[in-house]
Amino acid sequence: MLRENQERPPAYLEERVLYARNKFLSTSKPAVTGGKPITEELAIELRMTSFGTAACPPRGEWIHSPLVLRAPDQPLAYGLAAPRNSTRSLLSGLQAHLIKWLLFDSRPMTKDNKSTEPPESYLRPSDERQEEALWRACSEVIWRCGGGFNSQNPPETKVTVALPTGKTYVQHSAQYYQDGVTEKLHLFEFNKLEDLQIFIKRYLYVFLLDEGAGALLMLYAAVLSRGCENIIKDLDGKLNYLVSTQVEGSINVTMLVLTGRATPYLHNGVMYVGDEDHYAMPQFGVLFRSLVGLLVWYGSDDNGSGQLTKQHPGSRLKTPALPIWVTCCSGHYGVLFNTNRELLRNYHAERRFDIYYYTCGGCHVVLNVDTRSHEDVAGSLRSDDISATPLEKLIHTKWQDAKITWTGTVPHIGESPK
């Protein structure tokens, strides 16, 4: 069994044992067959694009971080679980898509757009619904990286998924250091979302195997589907590779998961930046309103997000189509969400509401956000209040001057370690 040993929440929220999908170990698993073996050229390019070098192995957590779901039918059954490491920026984006499917995509609605069951009941999925949520979330992320969902008339979408086999296709050399995964990959291409979903569902166990590389396989699928050359173009010279050295990973990885592009720019649309000595050059930000949003609070001059300069999300990230946000709070990644689909479309709903906060480390709290005027309420927190916690300051980047009330003990979400 996997055990959490980092980012401890309060005792009443702590879940010490992570739920490994052991049923996959006791049932028949289809062997990975078909596809095309990886070439040495592609293996080097994939490692260079993702980690900056092929001559050294990736950080160990990428090789040994499976996708882990918590125990079904429990309060946190909707959550992925993982220790604090550089896979968090990817897993938090995937977590947001899991919540999206459970809360909104899978819920039957009445004619007046109301749920037939209390929304909280969908946050305690059975193991079957957990698995469906996961393979659908993985498929959606990969499909978006291949260009799907990103415009009204998208070009032909083609995505690539890479799964390891028992055979090694790239030998150890001065140019390539074997990592136990990349050199064993078979590549599978899809141009229909339904075919991709069937494939991910069939081989979901590969992403979930204990001590497996589920997080790395998701990263590789995103990179291959976007294209290594396009990833480098997305980074626009701000970084030379995708995964930064930050403790919980790069916000560029999160942007790839949310928007299908690894852009370091969080503003809306395209901005032209130049000066009197240089031609104005385009910086491509968020081209379409995101289904899932992003909120960022840096907290200090030491940028914890993996970006060289501080970028603040535009409205296409701060006001997404659905009330779900990946959060980067002083370099710590989590997810904020509300169960009301109409929250961001209804002024009255947004006046006072509860919002959930979850991290893959097991921290889970509920906060009440009150955006009504509080001039007559003593002690209400303003966005510049030095007594506000980092998470409250992050929430204030979306709802400035809102009064925030915690349910239960306030967890520690501090600065990133130096």
TrEMBL record:
Every Deubiquitinating enzyme MINDY-3/4 conserved domain range: 47-408
Record key words, sorted: Hydrolase, Protease, Thiol protease, Ubl conjugation pathway
GO MF annotation, one: cysteine-type deubiquitinase activity
This enzyme's EC code(s): 3.4.19.12
Keyword Protease: yes
GO biological process, one term: protein K48-linked deubiquitination
Catalytically driven reaction(s): Thiol-dependent hydrolysis of ester, thioester, amide, peptide and isopeptide bonds formed by the C-terminal Gly of ubiquitin (a 76-residue protein attached to proteins as an intracellular targeting signal)
Biological function: Hydrolase that can remove 'Lys-48'-linked conjugated ubiquitin from proteins.
Family the UniProt entry places it in: Belongs to the MINDY deubiquitinase family. FAM188 subfamily.
Name used for this protein in its record: Ubiquitin carboxyl-terminal hydrolase MINDY
The species this protein was found in: Papilio machaon
The organism's taxonomic lineage, starting at the top: Eukaryota, Metazoa, Ecdysozoa, Arthropoda, Hexapoda
